[in-house]
Amino acid sequence: MVDASKLTLEQIITLGIDALAESLGPAGMGRFMEQFEKGSGDYTRDRDKILGNSTLEEIFAQIQQRRQRQTEGSKSPRTQFQKRDRCSPANSSTN
User: Fold this and answer.
1) Where are the beta strands (DSSP E) in the chain?
2) Mean per-residue pLDDT for 2-26?
3) CA separation (Å) from 17 to 2, 56, 71?
4) What is the pLDDT of residues 39-95, one digit of tens each?
5) DSSP classification of residue 76
6) How many CB atoms lie within 10 A of CB 7?
């Protein structure tokens, strides 16, 4: 293993890309790297447009409404996305 504290940032990036390409192949490396695009825009400036200007009371009310809808929907069979007891081996398969 290489002592990364003695490498430049450029060397670390090169070694990382090489490791990804070796482990995932060129296409897999590309897909992995796509997850880290910087994107564009100014979230700080745009967040009020995105999120609105809700008060804490309004946010809590929305949470309660969502929980109520989820509770009403819980009468249907369990889905793979619902929590399971992770300590029990019997519950480790899809129930």
Assistant:
1) none
2) 92
3) 15, 44, 46
4) 788 888 888 888 888 889 998 999 999 999 998 876 655 554 554 444 444 444 444
5) S
6) 13
Alpha carbon distance 44, 27 (integer Å): 34
Tokens encoding 12? 């670390």
- Interatomic CA distance for residues 85 and 92, integer angstroms: 8
Q: What angle do CA 57, 58, 64 make, to 5 degrees?
A: 90
Quick check: 66 and 58 in contact, CB under 8 A? no
Place of tokens 């670390």: 12
Indicate the residue type of 94: T
DSSP annotation of 77 reads P
For residue 62, the model assigns a pLDDT of 92
Token pair listed for 31: 């897909």
For every residue of 18-33, DSSP letters joined together read HHHHHHHHHHHHHHHH
